[in-house]
Write the structure tokens for this entry.
Amino acid sequence: MPLQNEKNETSPRGPIIELALDSIGLRFGSYAVLTDLSFVVPRGQFVALVGPTGCGKSSVLNLVAGLLKPSTGSLWTGGRLLESINRDAAYMLQQDGLLPWKTVLENVMLGPILRGTPKVQATKDAEAWIDRVGLRGFKERYPSQLSGGQRKRVVMAQALINRLPLLLMDESFSALDVQTRALMETEFLELWQELKATVLFVTHDLEEAIAMADRVLLFTAGPDAHLKGDYAVPLPRPRNVGEARFIPGFTELYETVWRNLKEEVMATYVR
Amino acid sequence: MSGEKRAHVFALQTLLLIGSAAAWEWASRSRWIDPFFFSQPTVFGRRAMQWLIEPGFLLGGHSVYHHLLVTMQEMIGGLVLGVGFGVVVGFALGRSRFWSAVLNPYIQVLNALPRLVLAPIFVLLLGIDERSKIALGFSLVFFIVFFNAYRGVRDVDRNIVNNARMLGASEAQLARHVLLPSAMTWILSSLHTSVGFALVGAVVGEYLAAAQGLGWIISQAQGNFDAAGVYAGMLILCVVVIVVEVGVTRLERRLIRWKDINETMFA
């Protein structure tokens, strides 16, 4: 019998591990941002990281991206020890990093071009992605000519076009107005379900975290931040982010996580 | 700006020019200011026209166009060399923290030195022909461009660099897609100043020691107590500067289309 060549989401021994953090510590000088942080993310899971401000959530993304090096512990992605920039991860930064001297089209096709895709193919892919994020007709514009919501759409296309297995998102939708935000979150979930990427999603908004994720990781207040809680989100998919809070089970989970989060938020005030 | 407003601005600009020239003319004719020192717009204007349209009117055996050409060549020579070296050195030091730390005090000292005092050295070293003027222009332009290229490379937005890295950029690709375009905006915004300084290098160099060029014409007129000749030379210089300035602004618009650059005329 020929070997099965299909990409299976699970192996006989259980789900494939996309990302593993093993007792990670991160220090800046004498300040310990993270201490003994460990968690494992199976392939295809959407994980939200929540916690009080300054707890090092964004640092976790930078570690997984390979932009920061852990002071102690080891970090594995796709079964390999991460030692430099993570070539398997797309990163939607909190402050977008669009290149102001490139048009929307040039920005979106940048990833494929940098990774060696021929220009004709890259242009075709980029145009398709620009259509998918709803920016048809804007491809010749420069970022400075776009609204905040349109810029986010470009960022999304730029990050997703490389079809990388791991997607890192830092407060990706937080700067948007409420209506645009719910709309884009729902659109993003549709794209994500199609791409089947593993997602690490940092947010300060618990409602957003539960509405979008499969799993919520709660961090303690820094310094020495580590995991305080690990909650599975039992809501069905596909979800509409704007209406998720009406689904039974949402409120119960929200209250549980919020009680714990509140303790940590109070702890940051006491200091 | 709307078309109507632009016409308005242009009309006022013209009025301001005519008004100040008329005031000058009147003040000089009524002996309110001494025409020996200040001349009159009609007199030096006529002189400049004479230089420009009477082919028999020679200055030091050459037409004014010859002198203009010499000055322009010197200016372009100083500009091209200064910009070229400034970009390369600025880029290199911007990329290397180690070497910029090593060379920093020397660059600061050289920059603090008033470069015009180098003019006599350049004349001794290179003679009174074009080369000493090009060298002077170079010494003025180099530092402006150098500092701008250096800052351009240093001040790149960290987010943009990280984003490009995550998208898959190698070091060489990072330089090409991020650092160079970022430095470009700084270099171009310094180009207005650089062009001005290249011209200063050429004209001052000619003024000090030369046998031709606009600076030489002005220096000759000064030697003959000919105020009209000095002002006529300055008038031609002004026109040259304006033409060059318009060219630079056009170039800038082409190269940094992505940025709103309406304010650069005053930057």
